C-alpha cells in the first residue's frame, strides 16, 4: 500500500535533501582540495584558490614523497603498532573486564576501585617517561603498544556489557562440562563481538592517530609513526620556505600528497567499519 | 569447583590488571624489557670512542635514521682531520613540539649532550643547572669564534654566563642576520609612475595608487597596498616612528617595552587611517603565511611582508607570481623614514634563532667541542661544507674566487644523503648559494633595523605569558581595524602594567644592568 505524500512532506524532503547535500559538500571539499593540490603543479598550488580540478596536472609531488623511504617505514610502524595494540588490547581488556564482572572473585572491590582510580588519576607525562625509560623501551615501538592496550574506560564499557549477559548462558555451558577458559573464549567472546569490535576500533583509531606518544618516546627516524612523520614533512616544507630552500620543491602540493597517501588506506577501510562506529555510539544506551 | 573458577578468573584479571597498570599508572610493570636499544653505557676515562647525542630543532624528513652515506663521509673526513674516535647520533624534530620533547627529557634526567635551545628554554635550563656555561670554551672554537657577532654573544649571556653558542656569519651583507623586509612590485610602480618609497608619506601615496589605479589591469577594484600575516606587528611602519613595539628600547628612565612609548600612538593612528582607506589588506588579521603567499602570487597587493628570498625567481611565492604574471618584477624596500627621520625594522632573534647549548650531563665536553669546531672548519678535511651543503664536486661547486656556490643537488637530496642542515652541529651563515636577485634584497635589508636591548626571558615573563606579545597584538588588531579609537592605546599601557608589566620591566632593567 502506497501512502500519498502531502505537499508539505515533499517540500520537507526536498529541503532536507538540499541541506544534506550542501553539508556533505562542505565536508568533502577540504579533502577534494588537498587531492587537487597534490596533483597540481607547484606554482598553481601556491596560487591557491578554489579547486574544481587539479590545475596543470602533475605527479611530481607524489614522486617526491614516495622517493623517500621513510614514508613507507612510518606506514609500516603505524600498521604494526595499531594491529598489535588492537589485538592484544581487545584480548586483555576483555579478560580484565570479564574478571571484574564476576563479583565472587577475591579482591573484586579493590580491583574495581583500582581501575576507576586509574581512569581519574594517572601518573602524568614525566613519571610515565621515567617508567618507559626504566623499562628500556625508549625508541622502541612496544612503548606505544604497551601503553595503549588497556584503558580503564574501555574496560568499564566491556565490563558493563558482560554484566548484562544472562548468567544462565554460562551455567548451561558449565553443566555441559565447559571450563572457565572455554566459556570465556567460546561463549562469552563470540557473543560480545559487537562490543569487542567497537572497543577494538577505538583502540585502533587512538593508536593510529597517536602523535604525542611517538613524539616523546621515539627518537630514531626508523621508529617514527605516520602522524609524526607527516608533521615532519609539513614542518620541513615550512622550514624550507622560510630558509629559501624550498626553491626546488612545491610546498603546498607536497603537503597535500603526503596527507593523501596517509589517509588513503583509512578511507578504503572505513566504509566497512562504519557500522561498528554507529554501534559504538549505541553501547551503553538503553536498548529495546 | 568454585575455587577453580576463582583461580582462573583471578589469573585473567591479573593479566589484564598488569597491563592496565603499565598503561595508566607509573608503577613498574611486570615485564622488564631487555630489548632496549638506546643509551650506550659510559666507559671510564681515556675512551676508545666518544658518543654524543645531538638534538636538532628542525624538520628534515629525508634525513636517514642511521646517518646514511653522509655518516661515513664525515667519519672519513674526521679521521683525516685527527678525530678518529668520535661518534654521534642526531635526533631532529621540527616545530614547537621539539620543545615539548626537550622539556620531558630535561625533567626526566635524560638530556642529550648538545641541543638547540630558544631563549625561554635557555633561561629555564640555566636556572636549573641543566646546561653549562660556555664562555671558557669559546677559545676552543677557533673556526667560528671570530665569525660570531659580539652583540649576539651578549644576547645569549644570562646571569653573567654564556649559556649557548650563537651562529657565525661569513663576511658580506648577504650573510647578515636580518633577512626579512618589505618587498614591492616594481612593475606596479612603473605602471603608476612612482619610485620605491622611502618615507611614510611616499609609501602612503604609492599604496593609494596601488589601490585606486588598478595596477593589475583587470578592470576591478581588487588590489591593496599592503599584504601581511595575522601575527604582523608592522615593524617597518612602527620603525618609522622610532618604535619597535615588542622590543625593549632604551629611554632616559631605563629600558621600556616599545609598545608603551609615545611613538606607538602615532604609528597606530597612521595604520588606522590606512586600514580605513582600504590600503591594507582588510583580512590581514586572519591571514596565515600560505594565504598571504596566495594573495601575493595572485597580484592582490603591491607591498608584501617577505624575506630576501622572495627576490629569487625560484622561491615558491615568487615562482607562482611569475607563472601567473610573467611581467611581474619585485624589488626590496630598503627603509621607510618617518616624520622625524626614524626608521628600522625588527632585528632577527640572536643567533638567527639557532643557538646551541651543551648539557651538564655531557661527560666529555672538550671532545664534543672538538666535534663542533670540526663541523665549522673550512680548512682541508674540516666539516664546513659537509655539514652545510654537501660534498664538493658532487653536490656543489665553488666559483673560482670562492664567492659563489653553485648547487647541483637539491637540499632534499643533500639531507637524504645524511649531510647538510641535520648535521650542522654549529652554524655559520653562508648564503653564497643564493641567487643574485635575492642577494639584492638581502643587501637592502641589512642596514635598516632596530636592536632589541634585551632578548632574555625573566621569571615574570613566564608568570604573565600574554603580557609581552599577545596583549599588544589584540589591541593592535582592534585599533587598526577601527573597532577601538587610537586613544585606546592608553588603556593598553595601563593594562600592560597591571598585567605584570611593571614587574617584567623591573626585572628586565635589573638583568640589563647586570649585563652592562
TrEMBL record, chain A:
Belongs to the binding-protein-dependent transport system permease family. InterPro entries: MetI-like, MetI-like_sf. PANTHER family: ABC TRANSPORTER PERMEASE PROTEIN MG189-RELATED-RELATED, POLYGALACTURONAN_RHAMNOGALACTURONAN TRANSPORT SYSTEM PERMEASE PROTEIN YTCP. It comes from Candidatus Caccousia stercoris. This is Carbohydrate ABC transporter permease. Keywords: Cell membrane, Membrane, Transmembrane, Transmembrane helix, Transport. It is a multi-pass membrane protein. One of its GO terms (biological process) is transmembrane transport. It comes from the Bacteria.
From TrEMBL, chain B:
Residues 1-31 form the signal peptide. Keywords: Cell membrane, Lipoprotein, Membrane, Palmitate, Signal. It comes from Candidatus Caccousia stercoris. The lineage of its organism: Bacteria, Bacillati, Bacillota, Clostridia, Eubacteriales. PROSITE patterns: PROKAR_LIPOPROTEIN. This is Extracellular solute-binding protein. InterPro entries: Bact_solute-bd_prot1, SBP. It holds the Pfam family SBP_bac_8.
